[in-house]
Amino acid sequence: MKKIKIFVSSVQNEFSYERKMLYEYFLADPLLGRFFELFLFEQLPAIDQKVDTVYLKEVQRCDIYLGILGNDYGSEDKEGISPTEREFDFATKHNKTRLIFISNSENRNPKEIKFNKKAQSVLVRKSFSAIGELKSSAYAAMVKYLMEKEVIRTAPFDASIDGKASIKDIDSEKIRQFIRLAKSKRGFVLEESVEPETLLTYLNLMDGDRVKNGAVLLFGKTPQRFFISSEIRCAYFQGVEVEKPIQSYKVFKGDVFELVNHAIEFVLNKLDYKVETRKEHVQIPGSYEIPKEIIAEAIVNAVVHRDYTSNASVQIMMFRDRIEIWNPGSLPLGWTTEKLKKLHNSIPANPLLAEPMYLTAFIETPQVTPQVIKLIMLISGEMSREEIQKELHLSDKRNYINNYQNPAIKKGYLEMTIPHKPKSKNQKYRLTQKGLALKSSEKSR
């Protein structure tokens, strides 16, 4: 089958990281990689033709125009039009399917604001704040495209629809609790007073008036009524083998948030807890033999990345010397267990489940944000703040410090050349050994 071509259009300097991550995501995902082929102008070899002409030819060849809009308008031609807007107009002229994703950001170029309004007047656009949201929205859009074109008749599990479930099966109180928690953890934009349909639509969990499977798993009154294998089986053994008698055995049911919470509680209750001495704290400090954060991450991954079409359940088995967490599923196409041990992209098997879990901090913020990656990749030797800002094409000092410089320093990737005088006029910044290692890793990917 001939692959569906997607032309990705954006200001390259502003979204180089997002473009690369989107390309790798489509390539690795079993569904998207099978049906779609992304065109990025970074892939073009040096040619003896006008670049603008080549891009427009690629737009004409594509089936889908995917535009990513942000702060920058980009370079302008003689008529004052940027390549991104020119490509959008060309896609419109040739009746291409157009998808627009707009970054939630401030300080937009006036021309970019005008372009945004122009696009929104003829299209329904989706906004995003992080790469995970962009992936989730693009994923949902591609599945919808495939179904509308009848290329596939069954969507991936969390984006597909069970004919028996309806909005009446969604718990409105769970919706309110989710918004309350997401607002406190991530500054979620919707209010508790919104209708369930509004939230589900915002999270790409509705198709018209029908709820997707992901909505039932996240906010359903009784998810197991529709998906009986959506449960976690927990067992505690006294020794190091699976043998009777089983000391403790539980089967947890409910929505995915409840499954994760119950399973974490089960494991922690069986772990040794070391109580330390009270010296400087009112409360007595202590720690589990395995950090709670590690247990939580493993269980969340097992639930979010499982294959929900399987009749098997997530299983947690605790032994005297180890904990085993099993789920039905497989690694992304072309991945090995060795790749998991290195720095790698996040490619969730169920992205429509992953995003709400992130918003409620069940899935933590990635260690390396796109902004920090951009900063690390351009720094060479020792550079001043002004030099770095110029290379990043950032005019807002506060935006640079809060979203690029400070996070990179906090994570140990960047350091000052004069740390004892932070405000020195001679202050410069350089990569640490940790930062250099990450830069080398990114270059080899």
In words, what does this structure look like?
The chain is α/β, with parallel strands linked by helices and about 450 residues long. The chain has four domains: about 5-155, 3-Layer(aba) Sandwich (Rossmann fold); about 160-225, no CATH class; about 230-330, no CATH class; about 370-445, Winged helix-like DNA-binding domain superfamily/Winged helix DNA-binding domain (Arc Repressor Mutant, subunit A, Orthogonal Bundle). It contains 17 helices and 15 strands. The protein has helices spanning about 10-30, 30-35, 50-60, 85-95, 110-120, 130-150, 170-185, 195-200, 215-220, 255-270, 290-305, 335-340, 350-360, 370-380, 385-390, 395-410, 435-445, and strands at about 5-10, 35-40, 65-70, 95-105, 125-130, 205, 210, 230-235, 250, 275, 285-290, 315-320, 325, 415, 430. The protein has a five-stranded parallel sheet with strand order 2-1-3-4-5, sandwiched between helices. Strands 9-8-12-13 form a four-stranded mixed sheet, with helices on one face. α5 links the parallel β4 and β5 (about 125-130). α3 (about 50-60) runs parallel beside α4 (about 85-95), α10 packs antiparallel against α11 (about 290-305) and α14 (about 370-380) crosses α16 (about 395-410). The radius of gyration is 24 Å and the shape is globular. The chain starts with a strand and ends with a helix. The model has no long low-confidence stretch (mean pLDDT about 85).
Contiguous uncertain segments of 5+ residues: none
Distance between the termini: 28 Å
Number of domains: 4
CATH architectural arrangement of the largest domain: 3-Layer(aba) Sandwich
Structural class: alpha/beta
Question: What is the strand tally?
Answer: 15
Which class of the largest domain in CATH terms? Alpha Beta
CATH-wise, what's the superfamily of the largest domain?
P-loop containing nucleotide triphosphate hydrolases
Placed side by side, the strands forming the largest sheet appear as 2-1-3-4-5
Average pLDDT, all residues: 87
